[in-house]
Queue: 4 jobs
Job 1
Amino acid sequence: MESGLLAPEIALVARSKALEARIRRLDPAHPLNRCVNSPSPKARLIYRSYRALSPSEEIDPIQDAPWDRGFNRQARLIEVAGPDPGGDKSSFKAKFLEFLAVVPSTDLVVFTDGSRLDDKSTGGGVCLTRGGAILNTKIFSFGRVLEIYDAEARAALHGLELALDSPFWSSARKCWICLDNLEATLQLTYRSCGTSQETFNKVNELAQLYPGKIQTRWCPSHIGILGNEIADKVVGRVVRLPSPEPSPLLCTATLKREVKETGIALAKKLWGTTLPALYKDLGLYTWSSKPKSLQLPREVLDRLIAARSGHGDFTAYHLRYFHFDSLLELGNCKCKKAKTQFHLLFCKLANNKDPKLLAKAKKNPQLLFGHHCEKLFSLVYFKTEFYTKICL
Ligand SMILES: [Zn+2]
């Protein structure tokens, strides 16, 4: 638990799942893909495990050669956001307002926004405008199958479809799709070789169908741009709705995250069943892959783990394992009391150094040895010098 490492059997399962998720991102003709789709007796295990993965989108990572994609990041950045104005958010706002001011009143401007809640459900909001007037707003729920980047792209596609259905489409010279996610804006009109390939390819097809008409623009979020604020506001209402999307397929990015979380979920489950009684008393119920205690200096962490686990220079520990030589050699604390796991709390010499510091922890040892105890434990360690000068 203190190391944040997965148990070996769980780590193996996690690696195996990660490999299977990677196979979903290989081209259909790849030998591994053929192996999991038409299994030989030798590949039966990986076939079964692969089939147990959540259904996800099928992508073709080699549909386009990189040199055929025609994507130049620097040029594209200037295209969607203009030259960097520097400064704070207000300068980006001013630049975007300048852009809006020169957009002809007959052009369509679609503001779109994707959002994700803590429960991983996503949604999209769209606000279609023309000449500063709001023509339509729409909300979409995508369920738990997308990441925020994918939700932004999907919302942009729906926004574009809304503009296509508008009676003003034919009279518009251009249709500007304004997203507040810079990466999604950069990639939007290009074919994708990764996550949400179908969505990006659809936008690309429409852009090819109307050459030069569909343009993308990055709109910085939360700077008071009306259309963006409305899209942001409506999406906040939709993410809790059930998903109307017909396909429950996960996007590639969500599958990758889900697989990554498999190991952590299994580790938490295992910890819940193997939790030592003393850890329960200290409230250490939750397993974490990145325990904060690992940030403590090595000598402090050593004492904290010894106090929690009971494996250290304690009288009971030496007696349990018949370390009679150690008992004679190391002896008791300088206050003449036996060394116990939580003796720090009750040692007179340590308390004399700063009586107030340990007062609360005496009533509730979780404060000094439980979750989020790192700051207090480190303070006590250095202030009382208990472990370095008193109880050696
Ligand atoms: Zn003592």
Job 2
Amino acid sequence: MGFCMGVRRAVQIMEGEATPDTPVFSVGEIVHNPHVVSRLGTSGVHQLPGPDELEGDIGKATAERVSKGRVAITAHGVGERVVRELESSGLEVIDTTCPIVTRAQRYGQKFVREGWHLLILGDPGHKEVRGILGWTYDAHGKSHATIVQSPELADLKRLIEEFPGGFPNKVGLMAQTTHKVEDFAKFVGNLMLLQRDHNFEFHVVNTLCHATTGQQEAAARLAKDVDVMVVVGGKKSANTRHLREVAEEQGCRAYHIEAPDELQKDWFNGVERIGLTAGASTPDSSIDEVETRLRELLAA
Ligand code: SF4
């Protein structure tokens, strides 16, 4: 549980590069965790608005805010246009995109170049998904990808029926890296069922992150064994929310908290065993603080 390889790596790179004279400015939120963001500020790593918060050329807008130091692309990655604009701003750019996210971006780019339409199972509001989408534009500025939010048969049927210009017959399938493997399998299986009477080619790429699927499997095993699960992580963190869902799917009551002061003693009345897990953007220190507070509450 806790920091995954990608987030750990991004934080280490930024902290390693930052000095008091040459701070590092992340373009957008480094991780979905306000405690980590505030701690990094003391190491010379500061946060700037990300591509979704700025209008126009992000390179120019960022250069206007940064007089010295370097800018960093965060673990969730950004689209191709954002990379180009940052690079042409004259600022030095450090890319800490998680290698698993980079792989998904490269596949997105490859699909479009080879004439496939890409369907991405994911949350359209998530930074990583918007970043992948940013690699699916052709030379005329047209994206050849669609973000699909639901893997359910009825929703996919509607998607196929209402697809502008007719549903393509060469389709690449991938998922947001933190998606549940069951949902991705359902997505692929349901599309096969719906298109069984048509000529089509599907190219499925497993873009799921093994760190996340491992975490989900461990959370599911733990949830079977306890009465209540406490899941620690930022409220905006998709993988932390999934961990809570995974625990609930096992019939376990689960609470998603960001900080120890959110714990309530009455959640644990009559409870014998409590499970504790944390999302991929949760630092070890936050997990330790929650555990300590939990033990204090139970001892009181
Ligand atoms: S959850 Fe996986 S894909 Fe996302 S940053 Fe962490 S290691 Fe990379």
Job 3
Amino acid sequence: MTDDHKRNVAQKADQAKKIDQDWQRELSPEAYRVLRQHGTERAGTSPLNSEKREGEFFCAGCGEPLFDSKTKYESGSGWPSFYAPKEGAVGTTTDRSHLMARTEVHCAKCGGHLGHVFPDGPQPTGLRYCMNGAALKFEPQKVEAKNK
Ligand SMILES: [Zn+2]
């Protein structure tokens, strides 16, 4: 490892730390716990569960649009559920905590943890994106229709 490289690695580690402190300052405690510490909000606590208006759901961390209200459905789980994310908006990893393999879902842009995806959703995808409302922000569609 060259000195330059070492310095780079040290700088990167330092940046990551700063970013974490920034997240903690910028996010609500609940959003921070979910997005940055892979927390799960208590079922039924998110006001977004009952959000039925048309609009878009954004990442509470970075503001990236993640889900369209058209893909939201009532799963009865107590968490906001969608059958599909916006294209390329989320990434997944295998989560082996809690003694079972689940598919973890995170924001593709900032890496913030959003929830999990399960293969028991409705058509057309058959998937259930079980999201933490604390990781999302909802923006209702403007009444004046935007240009398509
Ligand atoms: Zn994000």
Job 4
Amino acid sequence: MMMMKVSFTLLLTCTVHMLTFTVESLASCSSSSATEAYPSGYGDEHSSSCGASYSHEHDDLVPPKREVYGGGRIIDITHKIRSDLPSFGSSEGVGQFLWLPSSMKNGSFANISEMKMLTHTGTHVDAPGHFFDHYFDAGFDVDTLDLDVLNGPALLVDVPRDKNITAEAMESLNIPRGVRRVLFRTLNTDRKLMWKKEFDTSFVGFMKDGAQWLIENTDIKMVGVDYLSAAAFDNLISAHLVFLEGRDIILVEGLKLDDINPGIYSVHCLPLRLVGAEGSPIRCILIK
Ligand SMILES: [Zn+2]
């Protein structure tokens, strides 16, 4: 369902690298490159700004790998983009998505990566143009998504584990009117489907009648799910059509909802501003 591919350079990272390089060059390799923007914490206090000798002095450096921040106040609900992450319809997973065309080991002044992946990779968002071609042509891309919908109070709920998200399942959740953002945790999380490279068509998702029930009986505008599609495989197109037709519901798919208590959080999701793209990788966090 996701034919469009996107390739772009990590411009932000590159810009930071290039600015640092310029500053350092102008300073003629001075003893410290600390600036107001980076007053500390980047480990450059002990380096000469020439940088080349830096790595040899810190062979034992271990970067932090975190899922929570601030003592658990901030929970990352984004899956790391990795080569063995599942990819829709594929048994091969995401595969290689990063290249290093400019490498310091090959003489470049900085490492500059390039990436190429489906816009619907890992934790990602769908725009109306994903299933409606006239919306796609009209420009309803990820850059048009309402950040007000993607940021604010949210409810994490556990869906009954024995079925897809049907109208009956939706009704049983008793989600009050006024709740605008809901993260639906399902059997997919229990089965750890996002940790299995092979795409699994037996994932749990919305059936058409469940999507219809949500629209007619709730105020939910952000729908978060824990596998690569909000719609169950059997209703893949029909449930997506129900959700996306009104252009006011945003689907965030492939969320990492393991080991989090159900309840109310503040959710914060930010898609990339990919002009013309009907999907985008998205970074989502919960704040307690
Ligand atoms: Zn998608």
